[in-house]
Amino acid sequence: MTALVHGFVRVQPGSLTTVLTAAARMSEASRAEPGCLSYHCAQDVGDPNTLVLVEEWASDEALQAHLGSPAFAAFVETIRPAVAESPTITRFGDVTGRPLLPRSDS
Question: Cα–Cα distances in Å, from 52 out to 1, 58, 61, 106?
Fold first, then answer.
């Protein structure tokens, strides 16, 4: 079963560029990881300081490997001082048996 993750991040005013740069790096690194089906960062059109990271992993094992990766640790350390509050992370289990989004590099 694929693992779907949505992470909502509220960014402190003045820190958006730092977080967007880190998110772009994290997205690129994540897409290169085994088991990453898609990884995207989107910005709320009504509130630019609210972001959502949308991830899809081939398995829970692939997600766990990602969470233990040096790239993920660096991302967390970079954005930690820039977030206004603790991110809201929600994990979903896929019920369709097919990818939610096509790979970005396809």
Answer: 22, 20, 22, 22
